[in-house]
Amino acid sequence: MSEAPKVRPYLPADEDAAVDVWSRAGRIAHPFIPGEGEGERERKMREIYLVHADNWVAEVDGRVVALLGLILGEVDGVNCREIGGLFVAPEAQGTGVGRLLVEHAATLHGRLTLEVYEKNTRARDFYARVGFTEHSRRTDEAYGEIMLKLVRPAPRA
Length: 157
What we know:
Layout: E1 6-9, H1 15-29, H2 39-52, E2 54-60, E3 63-75, E4 78-88, H3 97-109, E5 112-117, H4 121-129, E6 133-139, E7 146-152
């Protein structure tokens, strides 16, 4: 029997496992993005996002199964934390690991925001279930895809 998922800070030693989770989950979530999970996008993941974001991982039985990256965000002129990325290994999706990471971020920072591709309906459904609502829309200049900005209020005390 597997142990319960554990959330902990990302460590540089997690890089390959985190990139593997991102790559596999990203290809499923974003089939409309050319080269998702590889090449230049992988380089940016390794050299920019894993270095500059406040990253957390969920692990089960000592294996990284999910990655959450937090960056500074803004909604209506007010700073808050933004989920820059939440990626759950395909075999761990639907097990509560994503919810665990979102709840961890909310406990640390309160109000959260994020952007999600409109076409990523599975992620949109997940975010609705964990309390996010649509705030605004924009077109992603790089791919011409509609991005939804979602907001989740701070948990009540």
